[in-house]
Design the sequence.
């Protein structure tokens, strides 16, 4: 199932919430991503919300004001659970569409004065709220689905044969650590681990020296499947609720020593950051693209990973940007520096293929589970989605405008990730930000 564009995507739609009409906003009325928030630090008042312009709309409070009709009622009342994954994400597509349609009605410039008055009571400025994890994530899987990233990393270690023989046949992934996933803005402590940069000496337990980020996109599971059941490629998107930004922090020196023979472990499990906003599949309908155009010499996906619909519309056109602001830059009031700009059109495997493959052995996916694409990199140097690639394993340091240079992240550095979609004939929509400042090892 692929959502089609409808009246909620009309570029001429305006909201009576003026900040939602700004051309550079991430959250126009055509977006309306979900989030979980609370005023101040009062965790007991955590609520399910929807972002609109510079505000968050309290969904359940709007339900209490009788602003939702019979069709959109189900999701509105479910928001009383204050937990996005167990309350909203598993609802079927028809209910999701009805809820979105009603939100557009009450937030549009055509809404009557009484409706606007009631909704306004439940709008909270974003600078007055704290955001929490958008879902309770029971399981987390990270894929490796950018062929340019895989080729670059492979070339560092296997120049004559960068891609392993299975890469073009199977979406590669590993099971990540769900308990260390944190929401944007959470400070990241530099991890310690075993390091064996000197091949002639035994490893030592020290603070990570080659700390890195990875620019990724995540998607949340809505409807799950039972243990032993598979999910067909035709049905895969019925199980995807929405997308977010993901920073898969990586300790490269720890990773180089520990990853053989089983792959990522402590080099990845210390922290993963996610953006607080979940952009729904329906909001993304105008920004669908073909799946990656494979070289004519490449193998075609196996039958269970292949469908005409996925080939024509399984991809997403999402621009991804990574910025760096060092501690010195903050002290000097210097703007963050753009490190790279990539796009999800360069993913070799689509989210539907990732999900279908994940469940192809009967693995039971559950509501709220998070899957991530792996580092999203493009073919050019300025589209590389991590410092490992940008500095070519530290051999080509990045020169910053203030004279500093970086091979890998230093204490005090802040990584800022952004994502947005734009296409002629439609309003630009965004994903907000995914931020994290590096603290020294404890």
Sequence:
């Amino acid at each position: 199932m692929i959502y089609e564009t409808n009246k909620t995507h009309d570029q001429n739609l305006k909201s009576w919430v003026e900040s939602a009409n700004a051309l550079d906003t991430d959250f126009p009325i055509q977006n309306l991503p979900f989030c979980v928030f609370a005023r101040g630090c009062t965790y007991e008042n955590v609520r399910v919300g929807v972002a609109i312009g510079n505000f968050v709309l309290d969904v359940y409070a709007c339900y209490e004001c009788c602003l939702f009709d019979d069709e959109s009622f189900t999701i509105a009342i479910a928001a009383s659970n204050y937990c996005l994954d167990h309350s909203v994400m598993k609802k079927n597509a028809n209910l999701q569409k009805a809820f979105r349609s009603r939100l557009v009605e009450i937030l549009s410039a055509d809404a009557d004065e009484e409706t606007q008055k009631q909704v306004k009571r439940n709008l909270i400025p974003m600078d007055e709220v704290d955001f929490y994890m958008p879902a309770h994530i029971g399981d987390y899987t990270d894929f490796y689905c950018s062929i340019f990233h895989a080729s670059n990393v492979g070339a560092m270690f296997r120049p004559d044969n960068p891609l392993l023989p299975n890469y073009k046949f199977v979406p590669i992934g590993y099971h990540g650590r769900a308990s260390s996933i944190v929401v944007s803005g959470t400070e990241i402590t530099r991890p310690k681990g075993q390091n064996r940069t000197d091949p002639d000496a035994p490893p030592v337990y020290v603070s990570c020296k080659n700390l890195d980020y990875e620019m990724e996109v995540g998607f949340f599971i809505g409807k799950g499947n039972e243990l032993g059941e598979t999910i067909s490629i035709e049905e895969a998107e019925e199980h995807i609720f929405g997308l977010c930004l993901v920073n898969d922090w990586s300790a490269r020196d720890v990773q180089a020593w520990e990853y053989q023979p089983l792959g990522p472990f402590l080099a990845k499990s210390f922290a993963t950051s996610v953006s607080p906003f979940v952009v729904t599949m329906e909001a993304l309908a105008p920004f669908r693209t073909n799946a990656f155009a494979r070289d004519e010499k490449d193998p075609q996906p196996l039958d269970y990973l292949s469908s005409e619909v996925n080939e024509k519309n399984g991809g997403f056109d999402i621009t991804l940007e990574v910025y760096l602001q060092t501690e010195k830059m903050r002290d000097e009031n210097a703007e963050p520096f753009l490190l790279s700009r990539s796009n999800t059109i360069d993913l070799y495997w689509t989210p539907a293929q990732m999900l279908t493959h994940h469940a192809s052995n009967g693995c039971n996916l559950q509501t709220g589970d998070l899957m991530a694409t792996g580092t999203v990199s493009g073919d050019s140097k300025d589209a590389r989605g991590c410092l490992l690639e940008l500095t070519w394993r530290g051999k080509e340091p990045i020169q910053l405008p203030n004279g500093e240079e970086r091979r890998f992240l230093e204490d005090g550095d802040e990584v800022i990730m952004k994502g947005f979609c734009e296409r002629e004939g439609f309003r630009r929509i965004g994903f907000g930000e995914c931020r994290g400042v590096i603290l020294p090892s404890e």
